């Protein structure tokens, strides 16, 4: 297991980026071990490298941070677990597609601990949950809501940024953006799905599922 840190309270976004960049540089230099860092942020929007200006529909609602992670606009705020993943892909295989798939499988396995079926959809970043109880979309396709976002960056084959999972955020805070540039579908959370899951519950499940998604490259597994 990498070093595992859970920060209490709300972590300022700029402080988080500074720590990640410093840690990634030190991991690449062989001066620090890998790190998984779990935080919550105050309400804010982030713009990834593919963000489109028209997808920021309420620019004055919360602070907006430009970030060099992949992806488009996303929201972070209280009640959402943000997991920053600083892993050395020089050791784990220089395969970006595989790494993203591992992140997806980690989220899906964690949700499965709560009997939630998370799914991946071609052309739609993140992890989705079917909502058959909701009206279908205008084209007749079934409604699906996003429960987790994924956005990463690599520097010298060390990852940073990572994933966010909605435990119990204010879902209407997502209304100031087009999340990840995807229209029609909505956003959900563990509590919105009727599960009285706490942040601590999710953290335990994340830690339990991590070694299965990211086996130790030195173990021969």
In short:
The protein has 221 residues and is α/β, with parallel strands linked by helices.
How would you characterize the overall build of this protein?
With 221 residues, this protein is of the alpha/beta class. Helices cover 24% and strands 27% of the residues. It contains four helices and eleven strands; from the N terminus they run E-H-E-E-E-E-E-H-H-E-E-E-E-E-H. Strands 1, 2, 6, 7, 8, 9, 10 and 11 form an eight-stranded mixed sheet that branches. A hairpin with a 2-residue loop joins strand 7 (119-121) and strand 8. The protein is globular and about 50 Å long. The relative contact order is 0.19. The model has no long low-confidence stretch (mean pLDDT 93).
Portion in helices: 10-25%
Radius of gyration: 17 Å
Strand content: 25-35%
Structural class: alpha/beta
* Assembly state of the chains shown: single chain
List strands and helices in order, with pairings.
Blueprint: E1 3-6, H1 13-28, E2 35-39, E3 44-47, E4 64-66, E5 73-76, E6 80-86, H2 89-92, H3 96-112, E7 119-121, E8 124-130, E9 144-155, E10 158-166, E11 186-187, H4 199-213
Parallel strand pairs: 1-2, 3-4, 9-11
Antiparallel strand pairs: 2-6, 3-5, 6-10, 7-8, 8-9, 9-10
Quick tags:
221 residues; three-stranded mixed sheet; 4 helices; single chain; alpha/beta
């Amino acid at each position: 297991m990498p070093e595992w840190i859970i920060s209490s309270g709300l972590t300022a976004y700029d402080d988080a980026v500074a720590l990640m960049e410093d840690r990634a540089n030190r991991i690449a230099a062989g001066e620090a071990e890998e790190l998984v860092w779990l935080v919550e942020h105050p309400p804010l929007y982030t713009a990834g490298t593919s963000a489109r200006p028209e997808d920021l529909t309420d620019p004055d609602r919360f602070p907006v941070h430009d970030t060099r992670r992949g992806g488009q606009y996303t929201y972070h705020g209280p009640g959402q677990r943000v997991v920053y993943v600083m892993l050395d892909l020089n050791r784990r295989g220089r395969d970006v597609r595989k790494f993203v798939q591992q992140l997806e499988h980690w989220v899906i396995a964690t949700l499965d601990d709560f009997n939630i079926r998370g799914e991946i959809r071609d052309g739609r970043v993140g992890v989705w949950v079917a909502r058959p109880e909701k009206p279908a979309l205008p084209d007749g396709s079934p409604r699906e809501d996003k429960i987790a976002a994924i956005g990463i960056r690599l520097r010298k084959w060390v990852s940073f940024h990572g994933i966010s999972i909605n435990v119990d955020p204010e879902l209407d805070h997502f209304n100031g953006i087009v999340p990840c540039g995807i229209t029609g579908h909505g956003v959900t959370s563990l509590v919105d799905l009727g599960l009285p899951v706490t942040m601590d519950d999710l953290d335990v499940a994340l830690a339990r599922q991590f070694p299965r998604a990211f086996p130790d490259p030195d173990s021969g597994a």
